[in-house]
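Query structure, 730 tokens:
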């Protein structure tokens, strides 16, 4: 039985002020629990003990020897001194160990004459003599038996995330101080029946074994328990939030027979897919309830999410409310406005000549609009004349008022800050609006359960009938004829009346690449990525001479952006040369070619989004990934993976493998480290699912956690004030 330890106790009182200050400055560690949750980043094994007579140059070895000689030698140049230790094994063979710099002090202090030690390192030679430079070592008991040595040899040795001021072995020493020589005993917040149900070890055993495992089996059991804690606390926070949301009031908006939605469905020139109908029924049922809907609508590129969202908005308008569609960019907001008004036709012309009987109005509100146009849109929103209001962050401003905001549709939620999303929800008096979050970036189930765990999830996998396939090819540097053929293909498509996109990662001189967060970094010495303004004269002069080329990028005035997009959509331009402003939402069925320059500078999901701009009609699409990345490089492997499949859900798993998950509790936005230290969203799906079920059941039975005070305390520790606010607003 170890000593009972309070994990919230001050760290300085256990390991000393100097070390505690470094840990606090580097990792914000202030308690014993903070230190014990600073888990090893990996483990090394001493492996089989090696006979000194059989050492080979360059070999990684582990030996046991007794110190028979020590000498500190002065040198004429850096590192100015070397500490040499000679050890002897049981057969009488000897080996020299050399220590330099910061390693001298520890070796001099611990490797005293006669000390028995286990030493691990790489064999080298100096002046024809075999030696180990800067080996790792563990001092063994003076009368160590063969069994003791073999036990030490088989143990995994932890290596910690370290800093210049605090090496891994110093952190290990601090952890050992916190654990104590006889181990420790910490209160376990998890209900015993839950631990038994999932065959989880105690928290005491988990902390001891993660830091001082005797074998791989102990380590695996420790990791499983500590992963469970991470998953369970996050899911508990989300379950309590779902429970609280279900108690909030929202105006129910049931389907109204013979209304605007019915008229829209009757006029549709195509049949909705089974997936669109099924998801539409889920959303419709949520909207009819007296508490707010919180639903994530995700689907692959081109799956038809917009029409599902529009049908939800029309149901709310039928119920006397308004719907706001929040888009991340003006280009996308304008695209949504045009597509919605086009789909509605006379149903968007309320009070106007030719307007249908059940018509409404669609208003557009963006930051760049002129004063007169903006005033008209604000009046339509405030009076209720506009049932649907499409806009950018301009919708969030204080002076924007709604008559009766019943539904908020957020397109590409990850592009909005927490405060921005929250501000729109606060525009409802006496309740909350229903919320539908759309994302065109498919999300693995584990990520959806964790990052969007407070939302019900609807998935659209089925593409609408008549969508053409998209062929994707890598255009590599070792085959210059491929690039020449690519330019010829764009010209051939234009000659047949079709159109093409060409995308660059930056605008021009002085701009950094416009890849997404998590995009691969270019290799050192690589040329800067080709820019829009670099490529334009080449297209007009030689590569695509005679074709009508338009330019679209972030420096253009919003009116100019809109004008270029309108010309391209109308077929007045053959080629649109752009940055990633056309990544989402842009819908031009006549565009058949997407050419991405320096494709290796983009992340997987961004490439998939860009590819989705073609093949949106009955014409087959072609995506060309132009790269200078050499064969077999990680960048080429990634591009080949994108070319091999158009399944966004499969690619989302590849994307998650290559990008860190970020902090599901908001640290990705606040700048702190991740809350998930062991849990991996990609590989721990079953554990996360079980944690979600347990958290939901416990919350239903004890929403205030009054019967589980230890869990409440653990949750409060995880959710400090900032993170609690993040979850509340998310």
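Result returned for the query:
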């Amino acid at each position: 039985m170890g000593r009972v330890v309070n994990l919230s106790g001050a760290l300085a009182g256990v390991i000393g002020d100097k070390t505690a200050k470094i840990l606090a400055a580097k990792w914000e560690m202030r308690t014993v629990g903070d230190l014990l949750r600073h888990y090893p980043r990996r483990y090394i094994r001493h492996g089989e003990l090696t006979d000194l007579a059989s050492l080979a140059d360059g070999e990684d070895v582990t030996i046991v020897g007794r110190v028979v000689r020590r000498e500190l030698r002065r040198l004429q140049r850096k590192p100015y001194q070397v500490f040499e230790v000679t050890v002897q094994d049981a057969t009488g063979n000897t080996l020299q160990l050399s220590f330099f710099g910061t390693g001298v002090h520890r070796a001099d202090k611990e490797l005293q004459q006669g000390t028995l030690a286990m030493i691990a390192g790489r064999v080298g030679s100096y002046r024809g003599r075999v030696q180990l430079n800067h080996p790792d070592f563990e001092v063994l008991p003076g009368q160590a038996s063969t069994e003791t040595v073999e036990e030490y040899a088989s143990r995994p040795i932890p290596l910690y995330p370290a800093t210049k001021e605090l090496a891994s072995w110093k952190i290990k020493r601090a952890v050992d101080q916190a654990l104590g020589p006889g181990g420790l005993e910490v209160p376990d917040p998890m209900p015993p029946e839950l631990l038994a149900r999932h065959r989880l070890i105690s928290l005491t055993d988990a902390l001891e074994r993660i830091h001082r495992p005797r074998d791989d089996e102990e380590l695996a059991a420790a990791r499983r328990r500590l992963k469970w804690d991470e998953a369970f606390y996050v899911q508990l926070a989300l379950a309590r939030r779902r429970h609280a949301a279900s108690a909030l009031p929202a105006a129910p908006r049931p389907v109204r027979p013979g209304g605007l939605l019915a008229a829209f469905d009757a006029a549709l020139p195509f049949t909705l897919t089974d997936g669109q109908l099924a998801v539409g029924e889920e959303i419709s049922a949520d909207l009819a309830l007296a508490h707010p809907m919180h639903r994530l609508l995700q689907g692959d590129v081109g799956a038809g999410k917009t029409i599902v969202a529009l049908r939800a908005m029309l149901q709310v308008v039928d119920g006397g409310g308004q719907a706001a569609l929040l888009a991340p960019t003006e280009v996308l907001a304008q695209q949504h406005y045009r597509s919605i008004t086009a789909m509605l036709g006379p149903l968007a012309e309320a009070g106007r000549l030719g307007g249908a009987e059940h018509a409404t109005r669609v208003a557009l509100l963006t930051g760049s609009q002129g004063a007169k146009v903006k005033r008209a849109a604000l009046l339509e929103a405030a009076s209720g004349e506009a049932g649907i209001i499409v806009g950018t962050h301009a919708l969030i401003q204080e002076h924007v008022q709604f008559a009766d905001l019943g539904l908020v549709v957020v397109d590409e939620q990850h592009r909005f800050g927490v405060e921005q999303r929250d501000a729109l929800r606060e525009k409802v008096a006496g309740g909350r609006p229903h919320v539908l979050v759309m994302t065109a970036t498919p999300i693995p189930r584990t990520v959806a359960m964790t990052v969007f765990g407070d939302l019900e999830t609807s998935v659209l996998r089925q593409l609408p009938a008549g969508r053409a396939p998209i062929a994707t090819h890598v255009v590599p540097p070792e085959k210059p004829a491929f690039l020449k053929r690519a330019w010829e293909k764009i010209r051939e498509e234009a000659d047949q009346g079709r159109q093409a996109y060409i995308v660059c990662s930056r605008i021009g001189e002085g701009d950094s690449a416009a890849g997404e967060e998590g995009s691969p970094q270019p290799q050192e010495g690589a040329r800067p990525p080709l820019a829009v303004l670099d490529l334009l004269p080449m297209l007009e002069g030689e590569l695509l001479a005679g074709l009508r080329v338009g330019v679209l990028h972030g420096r253009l005035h919003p009116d100019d952006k809109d004008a270029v997009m309108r010309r391209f959509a109308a077929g007045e331009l053959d080629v649109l040369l752009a940055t990633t402003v056309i990544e989402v939402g842009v819908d031009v069925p006549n565009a058949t070619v997407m050419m991405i320059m320096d494709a290796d500078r983009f992340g997987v999901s961004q490439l998939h989004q860009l590819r989705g701009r073609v093949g949106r009609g009955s014409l087959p699409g072609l995506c060309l990934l132009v790269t200078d990345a050499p064969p077999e490089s990680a960048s080429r492997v990634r591009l080949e993976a994108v070319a091999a499949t158009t399944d966004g859900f499969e690619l989302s798993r590849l994307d998650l493998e290559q990008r860190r998950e970020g902090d599901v509790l908001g640290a990705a936005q606040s700048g702190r480290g991740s809350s998930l230290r062991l849990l991996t969203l990609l590989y721990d799906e079953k554990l996360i699912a079980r944690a979600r079920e347990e958290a939901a059941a416990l919350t239903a039975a004890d929403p205030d956690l009054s019967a589980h005070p230890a869990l409440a305390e653990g949750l409060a520790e995880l959710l400090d004030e900032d993170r609690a606010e993040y979850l509340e607003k998310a």
